[in-house]
Design brief:
Keywords: Transferase. The protein has helices at residues 22-29, 32-37, 47-63, 110-124, 139-147, 211-218, 221-224, 235-243, 245-250, 298-311, 328-337, and strands at 7-9, 12-15, 67-72, 79-89, 94-101, 129-135, 151-161, 167-176, 196-197, 201-205, 255-261, 267-277, 282-289, 318-323, 340-350, 356-364. By secondary structure, it is of the alpha+beta class. The strands form 2 sheets. An 8-stranded mixed sheet has the order 1-2-3-4-5-6-8-7, with helices on both faces. The protein has an 8-stranded mixed sheet with strand order 9-10-11-12-13-14-16-15, with helices on both faces. The longest helix is centred in the N-terminal third of the chain and has 17 residues, at 47-63.
């Protein structure tokens, strides 16, 4: 790729930065979201920083073998954001791709279009492998990666550096030259319109604001007693679970949902679905309710909704649920949905003080869902 080259594809224009872009660069880079997830940006970001980038920073990227493009609207040529290639490794025909978008241009597919356009240009000029690294809490950027054809490859421990010091994990998304352009099919797709409901209960994705409720629910003695090992979670662990709920869903690790009473909007509990064996299409579910909502059939309704989604859009062929043998209330919930007792696995789960717990497994096939 050459410095002055202009790329027009997928509804965006990639061109060199210009002095007239200064105000728009400040608008995009000083934005709180950009500041939060792009720790390499100066803080605060000023007009001086934008001028340095346009006059010195971007040209230096090109000189170093990378690419630094302004994303522009093809109709007006106004700057919408930026996309570029960094950390080139010529011996591996590899580079890292990154982007940011101005607040007013978000939600229009600009980042996805620009990432696709630059990826195709990079592959056409000899690059064979592109990496895209996202922060674990940056679900929007992870959605861009998937939409642009990048597949989740794994967690890079402490690969990122906080602006104020310290390090954090990053998620690695990769696209090869021979990969299809995207979007990448996900193990756990989004819920239809963001919710599953039977008009009595509704299931929606867990969110960071749900931490108080989740800690209250999963710290209850009777809930702790029915998990393995039966150890209460820390507040920090619950907060992290809620913050990473979208990322865990997008990477295919687990779909965590809140159970909500439709009439009042009040949260009643939580449930989750994960693949236990992708190759055979087997998944597993779990659930818990707050005391005030028990005995109303809400757990049954939630499990039924989750199982229907699992067998439908999620493409799961078989569902399992593990329970402690003494949890008869949970057994009744599963049986009302159609699950059948399948096996008692003795000493399968860790208990307290080096003890082992039995696991009573229930299973459900699509034709058995009631």
């Amino acid at each position: 790729m050459s410095v002055g080259q202009v790329v027009e594809a997928h509804g965006v224009r990639l061109r060199p930065f210009r002095a007239s872009d200064t105000a728009d660069v400040v608008d995009g880079c000083a934005d709180p979201l950009s500041q939060r997830f792009v720790s390499s940006m100066p803080a605060p970001y000023t007009e001086i920083d934008a001028r340095w980038w346009i006059d010195t920073g971007a040209p230096a990227v090109w000189t170093g073998g990378g690419a630094a493009y302004a994303i522009a609207d093809p109709a007006t040529d106004r700057l919408l954001g930026a996309v570029g290639l960094s950390y080139p490794v010529p011996a591996r025909s590899q580079a890292e791709i990154g982007y940011w978008v101005r607040p007013a241009a978000r939600g229009r597919g600009v980042a996805t279009a620009a990432t696709r356009a630059l990826s195709e240009q990079a592959f056409a000029t000899g690059t064979l492998r592109l990496e895209l690294l996202t922060e674990t809490e940056n679900g929007a950027s992870q959605r861009v990666a998937l939409a642009a054809g990048f597949r989740y490859e794994g967690l890079r421990r402490s690969a990122g550096q906080h602006r104020g010091g310290g390090r954090h994990d990053l998620l690695a998304w990769v696209r090869l030259a021979e990969d299809p352009p995207g979007p990448v099919a996900r193990l756990l797709p989004d819920l239809p319109d963001g919710v599953l409901t039977d008009q009595v209960v509704a299931l929606r994705r867990l969110a960071p604001d749900d931490a108080d409720l989740m800690y209250r629910l999963h710290s209850r003695p009777e809930v702790v007693a029915n998990q393995a090992p039966p150890v209460p979670p820390t507040r920090e662990a619950i907060e992290r679970r809620c913050r990473l709920a979208e990322s865990s869903w997008l990477t295919g690790e687990i779909a965590r949902l809140l159970i909500v009473d439709v009439a009042t909007g009040e949260p009643a509990g939580s449930c989750g679905l994960s693949y236990t064996e992708v190759s055979s299409g087997e998944g597993s579910i779990g659930y818990a309710l707050l005391p005030d909502w028990r005995g109303r059939g809400y757990a049954t309704r939630a499990v039924r909704l989750l199982a229907g989604w699992a067998f439908g859009p999620a493409g799961i062929a078989r569902l399992t649920a593990g329970t402690v043998p003494e949890n008869t209330a949970s057994h009744r919930v599963l049986e009302r949905v159609g699950f059948q007792r399948e096996a008692l696995q003795r000493g399968r789960l860790p208990g307290l003080g080096g003890t082992r717990l039995d696991d009573l497994t229930f299973a459900l096939l699509p034709a058995e869902l009631r």
